[in-house]
Amino acid sequence: MNTPATHVEAPFEAPEAAQLVARLRAAHRSGRTRPPAWRTEQLTRLRALLTENREAIADALHADLGKPRTEAYLAEVDLSVREIDHTLAHLEQWLAPQQLPAEELAGLPDGSTAGTQYDPLGTVLVIAPWNYPVQLLLVPLAGALAAGNTVVAKPSEMAPAASALMARMIPSYLDTEAVAVVEGGVPETTALLAQRFDHIFYTGNGTVGRIVMRAAAEHLTPVTLELGGKSPVFVDRGVDVDTVARRLAESKFRNAGQTCVAPDYVLTDARTAQALADALERATKAAYGEDPQTSGVYGRIVNERHFDRISALLGSGRTAFGGRTDRADRYIEPTVLLDVRPDEPVMQEEIFGPVLPIVTVADFGEAIDFINDRDKPLALYAFTEDETTRHRLATETSSGGLGFGLPMAHLAVPALPFGGVGESGLGSYHGPHSIATFSHRKARLDVPLSQSANR
Ligand code: NAD
């Protein structure tokens, strides 16, 4: 481990940010982050940070979000560890230079070779949100380190316990010459955004995404924007509603609905709607009991502002079940709304809470139009056995990811690119896609000078 094990302290304004970036840039220039052995060591240490501090991480997530321990282990610790393990297993292969076949070099002197290699970009800024404050800080950080960069990691101030824990842990596990944590909110982030980075990786909402992109444009800095939006679920008639409901409830109500790829709303026909609502009620009771508030396995809303925002959406449609709230506890009951009209408040913005509206459509064609009339979602899900329906969803709609049969699961497959399109984001990461995001793919041509070359 490295000393001094400090993170960046307040006040943190533009001069401090400039100094920090200059220090990290010099560390990158020194070449210390380039050797594969350094990258592997950092990833191994990051893995240890996660596995040796499982309890402390779960405690912090419980303090910030009332996150149940099982959720904390599964979606924050284990998922991040799996991502790191996958990277460690494949890194050498991903980093290997690629050679073009000789026939691509027609017209060049004999003996010429050409190919590509990945270069680290340099110094990278990672800005994380509050809803999965560990995973969404450490997985991008792992990718940036695997690609050989130095990194400023900025956790979300809205998850203060997790932020403080990361600020304490990261410097005691990782190379402090190469990684710095800056805690804080808008002023600190603004000070960082004024600096020239070689890449900015932002996860959060589209309003701030635009601020990030504008600041990045000043320095021609490339960005990855991992944003959100309303992710629809199409439920076909004739499917087994109990299986669908179990999988929907599990994905929608995890972290009290505060997941970027959570199902936002359901599109289905009128007959399936009622049967699905009944099945969702059974599935929700099976998962959280009669009273989710006292179940110990159900999360809370991050703060009063979001509590008030989500509570205001409960008036849309007709409540099939749920609807109870407790502001002092930031508790919102798992809720399903039926007969929701597209012009009602719950359909105007990303819900980001445990409220699932069911919108009735006449047929599949109307569902496709409904999806295509709106912003491209981060994820699109469907429950259907029909191959034509699957094909049409795959080819007639655009979304960051497409999941049949099990919402949110695509995010946990490290070899798949994870990211949005249009309003739901720009760029992607995870596994080899993180290497591509945090590297420059450099073209290289070698033409021999020797006499044997024919020019
Ligand atoms: P947030 O409020 O924690 O903001 C994210 C980051 O932006 C924080 O680090 C914060 O300090 C910073 N920030 C906030 N205001 C800023 C400003 N004015 N200038 C500079 N930086 C600023 O998180 P959030 O945006 O509330 O997160 C929820 C949103 O994120 C949802 O829309 C959700 O769908 C999306 N999300 C997307 C993903 C994904 O992977 N695509 C993951 C999680 C969340």
Secondary structure class reads alpha/beta
User: Which strand order spans the largest sheet, edge to edge or round the barrel?
Assistant: 10-13-14-9-8-15-16
**Tell me, what is the CATH class of the largest domain?**
Alpha Beta
Largest sheet: 7 strands, mixed
Proportion of residues in extended strands? 15-25%
Would you give an account of this structure?
By secondary structure, the chain is of the alpha/beta class. The chain folds into two domains: 6-227 and 425-444, Aldehyde Dehydrogenase, Chain A, domain 1; 232-412, 3-Layer(aba) Sandwich (Aldehyde Dehydrogenase, Chain A, domain 2), CATH 3.40.309. 40% of the residues lie in helices and 17% in strands. It is built from 14 helices and 18 strands. The chain has a seven-stranded mixed beta sheet with strand order 10-13-14-9-8-15-16, sandwiched between helices. Strand 4, helix 6 (160-173) and strand 5 form a beta-alpha-beta unit. Mean pLDDT is 96; it is low at 1-6. Nicotinamide-adenine-dinucleotide is lined by residues 127-131, 136, 154, 156-158, 185-186, 189-190, 203-205, 208, 211, 226-228, 260, 350, 352, 378, 420, 425.
Attribute tags:
single chain; 455 residues; alpha/beta; Aldehyde Dehydrogenase, Chain A, domain 1; Aldehyde Dehydrogenase, Chain A, domain 2; seven-stranded mixed β-sheet; 14 helices; 18 strands; disordered N terminus; binds nicotinamide-adenine-dinucleotide
